[in-house]
Each structure stands twice: as C-alpha cells, then as structure tokens.
Fold this protein.
Amino acid sequence: MECGARVVTVERSAAAFEAARRVLAGGVNSPVRAFKAVGGVPRFIASGEGACLTDIDGNAYIDYVAAWGPMILGHADERVEAAVSRALARGWSFGAPTELETHLAERVTAAFPSIERVRFVNSGTEAVMSAIRLARGFTGRDILVKCVGCYHGHADALLVQAGSGLATFATPSSAGVPKAAAAQTIAIPYNDAAAAREVFARHGGEIAALIVEPVAANMGLVPPGAGYLECLRRLCDEAGALLIFDEVISGFRVAFGGAQELYGVRADLTCLGKIIGGGLPVGAYGGRAEIMARLAPDGPVYQAGTLAGNPLAMAAGAATLEALREDGVYAQLEARSAKLADGLAVAAKAAGVPACVNRVGSLLCVFLTSGPVTDYASASRSDTAAYAKYFHAMLERGVYLAPSQFECMFVSLAHTEEHIERTIAMAAEAFAEVGGRSHAKPAGGKASKAPSAGGGR
Ligand code: PMP
C-alpha cells in the first residue's frame, strides 16, 4: 500500500490493544502509546521502512514520530541493519568489554568537545539519573535545579512540579515519588534568565547542578531564547555548580554536535540517548575527564549495568553516527524541515486555525495557539481538543503524528520532498476539518510529562 494513503480499517489494532490490555499494564509499555491524550485506537505496528510505518491492518503512514527521535536515518536502514547483523552473528551480550563500546565512545567524544569520557547505559532516564548522582558526588552538594516543562526521564528527583513560589523546592508530580526526593529539586521556568539568577542568588552555594534541555523538546518544541544558555553557563560557573545539558533528543539531531555545537555553549555533563543507539536501547552521559574520574571503578560514585554497552546497541549507534557524518546530511534535514514547517504554518493560516510553528533543525511542533510559544506557560495555551481533532484527521489520511500536542515532529533523512508535500496537502485538509474557530485557551492546561497529564513516553 502507498505510504500516506487513507486508512481503511483498524480492526486488528483494536483487537490487539484489547489483548494487550489483558496482560500489559494499560496495554502499553510507555504511557503515550495508549493514545490517551487524543483518544482512538493505538496503531499496532507490523513494520517500518524508510519514512513509512505499516500497521497490522495494512495501513501505511508517513511517520513523524521516528520512535520518538532515534530513527533519524529512517526505519530499517540497511547500513544499521548490516552492522547489527554482523554483531548479532558474534553473540549479543558478554558482560565484558568489547571494542564496539570504544568505537562508539570515540565517535561521541569526537562530536562533543565537552565530552572527554563517556559511560553508556540503557536509557535516557538512566543517563540523567546517573549524571545527577555524579554531579552531586563531584560537588558534594545536593540541590538540583530543573526547568518546568523539560522532561528528563522518570527518575524520582525529576518527576516534580514547581513549588508555590519562585526559588522554592518542588513537589512530586507523580504518585509514588517521596516528598523527600522532590525536596532536593528546585523547578524554575524555562527561558527565564531572571528566575535562574534569583535561584542562584538564593541557593548558589548548595546547588550541585542545573539540568536543562538546551532545546526544550518535551513541551512541544521551544528553542532557547537569545543568551539564555550563556546565562545558565555563567551562573553555574560563578556558583561552582555543574551545568548538565540533557541532549537525549537534541544530540546528533539539531547538529552533529547537538545543541552545544548549534549555540556554542558547552555543558559540564551531557546526557545522550535515542540517536546514539540507532533505535536500540541506549543512553549515555559524559563530560570532562576530571568529573568522569569520580565514577566507579576509578572514583567513589557508583553506577553499573548488566547490559550497558550492549554489542547490538553499540553497533547500531556507531553505524547511525557514521551515516550522519556524510556530507549534506544536516543541510537536507534543515531544508526538508523548513519546507514542512512553512507549509504547515501556511495551511493552518489558510484554514483560519490559530497555530504557532516552532522549529530547530529537524525538530518541530505545530502548537494550536496563536503563540508565540516560549515556555511551558505559553505552550499550555494550546488547544489540546483541537490538536486531537487535527491528529485524527491526519492519521486517517495516513500521516502518523505524535498522539499528544506536547511532542515534536521528527523529520528523518528518509522523508522525501514528496512525503513533505503530501503531508502539507493532508494538513490543509485536516486544518479545514478542525475549523477556524478561535482555539485560544487560558493558561493552565497541561503540558507536562507528568503521568497525571496522561503524557510521558
Ligand atoms: N531526556 C529527554 C530530553 C527525553 O526526551 C527523554 C525521553 N524522551 C529522556 C530523557 C528519557 O529517555 P528514556 O525514555 O530513554 O528513558
């Protein structure tokens, strides 16, 4: 079937979801896959190839989720498949060092000048959790500062929401997170330099680290304002705190060297995931040798993993990074993504649907609000009911978007000009269905990855 054709039936997916619900919690292994924010039948995927996904009913979609980021080359890329097959044939887990780990580490450290040593783990969550422990072990301090609307995985200290006042400690945003875990975290608004200055003025000497997504990609897509990352860098330097960039999404995505290359600001510790595993389970964290030397076995900060540095994941990651080094790769992503973003903005406008399209490289988000969207509060003004309508109108037409307003569209190297044009044409129809009413909503909607918002991965 043609990729991006009208959906015929979803009977098999509906039955598969019923079967899954009988044995899997909520029918899924990560909440967003259940389509709770938009309703309807989650599509069970049979296969992926290039920019296309085929579900078990045989419908074929142009995919803009890309497994939530890793599939920047497209699905079932032959180079990655060959590398994984070669590794597979030699045995796939040893619990002992392999050269594949060094090969991937060499590629990561070459791309990120701020990373002299790296440690591989199994997920982005694990990378962030471990980086925070290391920052605390290195500085001898406990307080962590994070930004509201940035998602860093589901470790206790990060499943928090802002306290009642600026520069006060956070409260848990998920059941099961002890108050004590949240009590060491302060949440400040993203892109608000004054708030960051205030928190450092009040708590500077106690802050172990500030963690931020340098390009916020978990409240839709919100680029850093001019000078914001530089301000965070300066505040951390002055306070002797570590600056942690969570580049799990932005790493190798917005540029080969991530947001650090794009904006010219270096982190002390960087968290990576997604693309560096080419779609297999991987996370990583790294930084200056002096900081990483605090990790066991050289130092006193403990962190370990039975499957860490898994040969298949290392091979997939190395093959992916190799492919991304080819000439013109990021220029192609930029051109196709710019065309898509412009086309979607024009289509929404023509249909009279208030929309604000934010984009950094091949990450973009169509916020259904007139915008501008610069932080969590402005992202929260999006009309989530209108998004659900838009999402289903696109899905019916064979375009697979994230089933939540507060996620990015991911453009891959497998998206052709034709895919982009077709997507824009489908969006014109979808926006017409959504209609031209005013969808502005007062602030206070949920843009959080907190489970209470039905979000999260
Ligand atoms: N950090 C960021 C910026 C993320 O986007 C995510 C997940 N999307 C994570 C951390 C957690 O990664 P994982 O889902 O692999 O645990």
Observations:
- Residues 438-456 have pLDDT under 50 and may be disordered.
